[in-house]
């Protein structure tokens, strides 16, 4: 089972415990990204650190407590602050380089709410390098004046995929585009969403071009008694596009869906039609087939969808394909299902199987 850390206190105290008790996972992350940055883009770790520092002023202006927490992680792990900042800027650093050498984590995200389901459920398969399984941490964070957070992340990264006690949950779909800025890295934007008490607060944290690069944040908000909404929020350095469906079914993979964002950005996903698009269409087919059959959508529905192997190995349950270029050899590293109505989280490490999910205590 994934290593779980219970973190509480000031941002610096939260960070120090993350660094101290997650030191092994942080080292895996540091070694993995040093190799990946150089292997794909010939970027040295020193150059990567310099690029991460370009975001420092924007982060300080955005939320200085994020700086304090990263400083705490560095102190606890016995590494430099710049190393932790680089991990939290890894998507922005990975964005640069030749189009045919771009690398990105992939994933398939699904959320359902009324009227398609009486419960609000959101989840995803996160696809990346299989070696990063060894970097995974489950963080349970208690912060003064903010919601409690349950989050799955890579060691050293303080924002990723999870939910909070205010009924907000977020999943991440990477997007590869041609532009970035020196604004706030998207992983810190994810943390800001999870620090939020409401959907409008979460959206305010990513709107207005505050994010340094493009990504999709699938955000669900559950306030109880039928008050719920899930939406794809494609963020970018030029603003956001919020997309929801009247039937309450929201799906995303790894290409831009917005009609607005391409006015300023170019989608560089070279395998959109043979991978990302098929996963999105298949996920929608699975959800709507269940609805057409009159099935009650629940956690078991998500398990079936996330273990689906149609179009193997580039399936929703993604497997490593040795016949494609190195930068595309991703696989499902973890699967997470968050039932916001029941305040229940199910998690599976590696390629998911129906009986492989465990409830997060």
From TrEMBL:
This is C45 family autoproteolytic acyltransferase/hydrolase. Pfam families: AAT (PF03417). Residues 118-352 form the Peptidase C45 hydrolase domain. It comes from Siminovitchia sediminis. PANTHER family: BETA-ALANYL-DOPAMINE_CARCININE HYDROLASE (PTHR34180:SF1), PEPTIDASE C45 (PTHR34180). NCBIfam families: C45_proenzyme. Residues 9-23 have a biased composition (Basic and acidic residues). InterPro entries: C45_proenzyme-like, Peptidase_C45, Peptidase_C45_hydrolase. Residues 1-23 are annotated as: Disordered. GO terms for molecular function: acyltransferase activity. Keywords: Acyltransferase, Transferase.
